Amino acid sequence: MKRPHIASIGTVRDSYDCAQAESLSGLYKTECIRRDGPFRTVDDLELGTLNRVHWFNEQRLHGSRRPVTPREFEQAYHRRITPLERPLSRELASH
To answer: Do the beta carbons of residue 24 and residue 18 sit within 8 Å?
Structure first.
């Protein structure tokens, strides 16, 4: 019995499904494995991966006009939206 194809990133059976995953995988290999390696143990690889993810989400500068970290960008966004657009603390956000 054949299982149905479940899209992980893009829509089912389009070229973006695999391309986006392969792009992320290539970035990981280039930025973490080749640059920070070689790793002696799986634990060392896991720690290196966690460090790279933390840097990517919290510290890297992104943007051409005013480089900011992803955290700074998100904080600025939340300061800009009006109180009516913000979910109440007891409500679930829609995302």
So the answer is: no
Q: How far apart are CA 85 and CA 17, in angstroms?
A: 32
- Chain centroid to CA 3: 28
Percent of the chain with pLDDT over 70: 64
The pTM of the whole model exceeds 0.85: no
* Residue 32 to residue 48: CA distance in whole angstroms: 7
- Measured in residues, the chain has a length of 95
With contact defined as beta carbons under 8 Å apart, do 13 and 26 qualify?
no
Name the residue ranges covered by the structural domains of the chain: 15-80
